[in-house]
Structure formats: C-alpha cells, structure tokens
Amino acid sequence: MSRATRAFKVLISHPNVPAPALELLRSRGAETVICQSVPPSREEILRKVPGVDAIYWAHYQPLNAAILDAAGSQLRCVSTMSSGIDFVDIPEFQRRGIPLGHTPGVVRNSVADLAIGLMIAAGRHFHAGRTEIERSQWKIEQIDWMMGQEIRDSVIGFFGFGGISQAIAKRLQCWDVAKIIYHTRTRKENDGDFKAEHVSFEQLLQESDFLVVAAPLTNETREKFNGKAFDLMKRSSVFVNVARGGLVNQTDLHDALTTGTIFAAGLDVTTPEPLPANSPLLKLPNCVILPHMGTQTMKTTIEMSLLAANNILNAIEGQPMIRPAY
Ligand SMILES: O=C(O)C(=O)CO
C-alpha cells in the first residue's frame, strides 16, 4: 500500500506528463495543478505556480528565480523530467536551499540506441542516400558511390563517460571496435569494465574515428567543439552529439563538414531548438539531424516521469531525492 502523505500541491508544467506519474503523485496525497499550454506558456506557469509545494518541470525552458519567486516561500522542492539541467539556475536553488531533482540514469539506454543509430546513419550516408533517390541520382553502378565509415576496427571516442557513454560502450563490446577512448576531467574508476582508456582532449580529437559527445553543457564545455577542435580531428571522422547543441560551435561545424575537415556528423541536439527549417546545416549531405528525440520512447519517458515524481515525493516526505541535482 502506498504511504499516505498530508495533502500537498504540485504544479505540473506540461499537460502530457504520463498518467502513471500523475497517479503516483495523487496516490500519495498530491493535488496536481496541470498547465495546459503546449508548448508550455510562461504566463500560464506564473499564473498557476503561486502557493504550490512542489514543481514538476517537464520541459526545457529556463527554471530560475522568477519561477521560484512566483511560487512563494512555501515551495519545498522541484524536479525536472530531464537528465540535463543546463536550463536551471542551480546557484539560485542552492542559495535558497530548495531541493532540486532530475532524471539521469533512466535515459541512458534510449539515448545510447539513438547515438549508435546516428553513428551509422552519419557514417554510412543515410541522409545523402535518401536525397539521391529523391533526385533520381541512384548511382549504384559506380563502385565508389556512397562510400562510408564502418564501426568495425574503429577507434570510438567519448567526450564524457557517464551513463550514456557507458551504455554505448557496453553495446559496442560486440562490434569488433579497435579501441574505446574517452575524455573526462578525471579518470572513471570503472572504465576497465568497458576496456576504455582515459585520454587527453587532444588525443580524443586526434585518435577517434567516431567521436560521440555525451556530456553536460556547462561553462567549461560550452563550444568545446569549435574550429580548433575540428581541425585536430581525422578527415575520415564521424562526429555525433546527443548531449546539448551548446557544446558545439555550429558555424565551425558547418565549415568542418563543407571543407572535408571531418567526414560527417550526426546530431540529435542543436542550437537553437527547434532548429529553423532554413538552417544551413540541413542543406549538408553529410549531416544527419534529428529533433532532440534521444529519450522519445514510451518506456524511457514513463521511467523519467516516475523518477521525477519519486524525487518530489521523497523530498515532500523528508527523504533525500533519488537523483538530486546538487
Ligand atoms: O533528458 C534530457 O536532458 C534530454 O535531453 C533528453 O534527450
């Protein structure tokens, strides 16, 4: 039987939060105040948030002092329904001592699957191939047409070696890769589980055949992948980003892809999001772009929604959050 809790109010910032999460919150005493606008409207949130005990933030708009002020001093906790929290003013939460949760961990499998999809799609010209069919330019009679890069015998590099990178590395154990390398500030103690080697940022750039970015966006990582970085990469390399668009200088990436500095890119994340339909990146034959859908599976979305709900319930019941963000 679920634990009974004194009634409390939770603002739910999006109308499509999966029902199991809402049911869980309600079964433990929550009155849910659900915002109805899609995309979420700041005006509606600011109108509905005053007086709530908790905020369930199910989208990526700035979560900052203005929202906390509007909520009021009775606010006890907040959880995002996301792994990344680059849109949250964390120092403001710390200053006020408001517990903040997020949902890493449960996202790793669906994002890892998608990252491998992007490695193959970009390395093997999925986008250009499709376009050539549409242009009636099917040239299979040319032996060197659509020559791509294989994962087999490749050096796979990761920028960041948390749950997502490790889930990709785990999947790649049976793909006959040459080597797995990664760059993080400090070596990960469990890297031996993946036969992965900690390397410098320069080595990562120079040695990777496929370079996958799966690290948080911070002041330190912002635009880490810029012209200088792409210049150090192999001309045959495939660059994949499943983290945040802000880690990449997109103009420099566009240049690297058009000048042949790198071979191809697969992006699930861009700046801005949504990417405008006239973005020059969309015109490139060697760039596969997806609309930030790494966690868009039913299973993962439900797991994320339940984790966010449990973060809130724990805090309301005086327990540490399951996945605190600070
Ligand atoms: O959970 C997140 O932060 C995501 O970006 C999902 O793709």
From TrEMBL:
Keyword annotations from UniProtKB, A to Z: Oxidoreductase
Protein name: Glyoxylate reductase/hydroxypyruvate reductase
Domain of life: Eukaryota
Matching InterPro entries: D-isomer_2-hydroxyacid_DH (IPR050223), D-isomer_2_OHA_DH_cat_dom (IPR006139), D-isomer_DH_CS (IPR029753), D-isomer_DH_NAD-bd (IPR006140), NAD(P)-bd_dom_sf (IPR036291)
Domain D-isomer specific 2-hydroxyacid dehydrogenase NAD-binding per the UniProt entry, residue ranges: 116-294
Keyword Transmembrane helix: no
PANTHER family in UniProt: 2-HYDROXYACID DEHYDROGENASE-RELATED, FI03731P-RELATED
Presence of keyword Oxidoreductase: yes
D-isomer specific 2-hydroxyacid dehydrogenase catalytic domain location: 10-322
One annotated GO molecular function: hydroxypyruvate reductase (NADH) activity
Signal peptide: none
GO cellular component: cytosol
Family according to the record: Belongs to the D-isomer specific 2-hydroxyacid dehydrogenase family.
CDD domains per UniProt: GDH (cd05301)
Species of the source: Drosophila erecta
